[in-house]
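name: query_chain
kind: protein
chains: 1
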Amino acid sequence: MIFNSFNFLWIFPLIFVVYFGLRRLLGGVILNKVSNYLLLIISYLVYAASNPIWCLYLFAITIVTYVSALVIENKQAYGKRLYIVIATIISLLPLGIFKLGCQVCV
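structure:
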């Protein structure tokens, strides 16, 4: 979804109100996770509305980020920086590939 499209102008405020409304109404750590999962599901739906194949890329990045966070959380302070750098590079790699690919195509 393009930021300057008509759909974005009405969907984003709706998502914003629902997300922060849930966090305000439900409160608590566990219930805040519900609103985060809702945001994740909405992200997948927005990608699927554009092109369902993009959900595979989003899923791969989600898995990489989640597994990286688990590894970083369980590491001692000494090795965390290396894992953070590697996870950041892997997570940003698709963005770089698509941006470079789009520049080459134009």
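note: The CA atoms of residues 4 and 75 lie 42 Å apart.
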